[in-house]
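Discrete fold record:
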Amino acid sequence: LEPEILPEGLKNMEGRHLKPNEKNRKRSRSQKTKSIQQYRHYKNKKEDNDHQGRRAAKVSTEWEGLTDRQALKKLAGELMTKHELLAEASEACVAQVAKIVKEGVKLSEEHEALYKDLRDLPWVSIDNDDTRDIDQLTAAMLLPNGNVRMLISVADCDFMVAKKDVLDVHALHNTTSVYTAAQVYPMLPIELSYDLTSLNPHEERKAFIMDITYVSVDNLEVVEESVYLGIVYNHAKLAYPSMSVWLKGGEMPPALANAKNSEYLAETIKLQDQIARAILENRRKNGALEFESLQADVIFHEDTVVDLIASGQNRAQKLIENFMLTANGITSRFLRSHHSASIQRVVREPEKWEAIREFASGYGTTLPVDVDNKALRRFLSERRVEDPVTFPDLSLTIIKLMGRGEYIFTADDEDSIGHFGTFFFKNRGTRTSKLFKES
């Protein structure tokens, strides 16, 4: 036995010959049992450490010589395989993409006629700095009669990918693009997602259009709204951080300053900001919940990770968030008005309201016994002001207690049950409904 794991009593008995009486014999057995148990624990721990050491040596050999970027790509690939996702397109997919790139996609005259020419509208994209798959553009205009028109375009991938062909099957398997620090695994091959269907700057692209007109910025009663197909042109590729600084009175981003008709574009983007802030304020009045999360962005210098920067939501991101909420609402109402069934992702009500009440009580706040979004909103607003540094952690706790969303089928004659915590306008007056988007 190793001396350091012997019970204190056995250490003192080393080298002595004992003739214990019955009482001492029982104690001796007990001590012996205890020492054997301790030895087994020590032995198992030592074997485990040896195994971990051998495994660490093996891993060290596998990863030896890799740059940070290569190591992160390798790890991402292993995780894709672990979760049974396709990290690469099949040979059939590659061949199909090559054919599309070479020959294009020919649509019927009837299909082409569905696309309205909207290239002259002041479309811009606002997204992450490093975004290559641009999936939405936004625009806003002040009409001669004082109404304000707001448009959202979403990239049309459907016309390029035939139902049940190899690209559709590949996309169906993954169901989403996967973003990691050093590698992006697009749902569609990069020739499509980064180029032919991406709403890239200074390129004409086909898109779905959500078009809505309000009485004014101060009166967001809907005058008219519609959904249709269009051809759009991105006049400037803009990024969240620099746009947020500019919207708050800072320097204009070079991408906007150097754009054609930059002054007009800048004017329309500021109108977008006014509309988005008005939408947000009306949602707040109706009890919309506002959370905050931090995202750790990996900063590379060539292939070496040099920093991790935590970033929260900024003003430009809130602009796009409220425009996309609007797009969801327009689309939902469009489907209902055309008697179309739909699949929606919703959070009906918090799964663990009692746990949320108990959590809030720890901060001296008593929430009602019955679910009350306005009371929860007040609690969140108070905590944001009281302790903004830890508010993202508090937000995460509440989000987890609210529970995960669920996918539901809504028939063409059913009203939406809504999504808890995200409030929005119906298409007339100041009545409110809930949208099908995560808070």
In short: The chain has 14 helices and 15 strands. Confidence is low (pLDDT under 50) at residues 1-29, 424-439.
